[in-house]
Amino acid sequence: MPKLGMEPVRRKALIDATISAIGERGSLNVTVSEIAERAGVSSALAHHYFGPKEELLLATMRQLLADLGRDSVAALRKATAPRQRLSAIAAVNFNASQFREETVHAWLAFYVEAQNSLPLRRLLSVYARRLHSNLMSGLLPLVPRKQAERMAEAIAAMIDGLYIRRALRDGLPNPASAISLVEDYVDAMLAKQAPRA
């Protein structure tokens, strides 16, 4: 019987172990037994908390989204100007917790698997809509709506593309370089715009 009060701790350990296992393997082709062993629990307990492997994977994706969402809200609260909001979004997506090697690999594996999994595709749609909304909140005060939509799409594509490039490279991630590329694009596009009346 599970110890009282341990469920949240063990759930988090299982989710962290899932991210680690996916990151190491580079795919979702991991077993619940492997994940449970990494988390220091039995596979029976992992099944008790999450049910089948697919539910554990979905919970892991939800946790990645929740962590990103929490970090985004905190960063955006500190951003007082529209341009600062754009910088905050770039910084959050490439901060130390989001741009760890295993997290990058987990995101990439989820993107690949979403082609065959409707629940994962829905979760990635939530991420995409949230990112778009956050970008638009910074862009709309600075540029006309049509241009804001185009810029939001391009910035989101840059963020996702930089994640893919990171996943395909060896060595330590370079968040400063990734942020700089996004910032350079935003500055160049804003410089082309006439000031809004």
UniProtKB/TrEMBL annotation:
InterPro entries recorded: BetI_C, Homeodomain-like_sf, HTH-type_TetR-like_transc_reg, HTH_TetR, Tet_transcr_reg_TetR-rel_C_sf, Tscrpt_rep_BetI
Task: Tell me the route in metabolism or biology where this protein functions.
Answer: Amine and polyamine biosynthesis; betaine biosynthesis via choline pathway [regulation]
Q: Does the keyword Plastid apply?
A: no
Question: Where is the HTH tetR-type domain positioned along the sequence?
Answer: 8-68
Entry keyword Secreted: no
Question: Where the record puts its DNA-binding region(s)?
Answer: 31-50
Keywords of the record, alphabetical order, are: DNA-binding, Repressor, Transcription, Transcription regulation
| Reported function | Repressor involved in the biosynthesis of the osmoprotectant glycine betaine. It represses transcription of the choline transporter BetT and the genes of BetAB involved in the synthesis of glycine betaine. Repressor involved in choline regulation of the bet genes.
**Designated name of the protein:** HTH-type transcriptional regulator BetI
Q: Which organism is it from?
A: Ollibium composti
Q: Name the gene that codes for it.
A: betI
